[in-house]
Specification:
mainly alpha; about 100 residues; elongated; 5 helices
Length: about 100
């Protein structure tokens, strides 16, 4: 499963946790896409902080060419705790939303 798919699944859980399931499905899908994009960008920024300049350029090239599988493999080779970064950013985002919604 690539990071975007994993993020999307967790964003669906956030919709449920925030009791937003009453919204029309198209609105839920749009929210999930927007939340996923935000979390994905946060993850990429964290990863870029950990990479060398040369590796950052290579990753940026993969992403700009929309080679997500290559980008994920590249990150996994260079960042041993990539899954942990994904989980942390999803959790942080979820906590921010819940805190903001109260």
């Amino acid at each position: 499963m690539n990071p975007k798919e994993k993020i999307s699944i967790h964003c669906k859980d956030i919709i449920r946790e925030l009791n937003l399931e009453y919204l029309p499905e198209d609105e839920q899908v749009k929210m999930i896409e927007e939340m996923s994009d935000v979390v994905y960008e946060k993850i990429i920024l964290k990863v870029l902080e950990k990479l060398t300049d040369e590796d950052s350029v290579a990753l940026t090239n993969f992403l700009s060419q929309e080679k997500l599988e290559d980008a994920t493999n590249f990150i996994n080779e260079r960042i041993p705790n990539f899954e942990e970064i994904i989980d942390d950013e999803i959790t942080n985002f979820q906590e921010e939303l819940i805190k903001f919604s109260k």
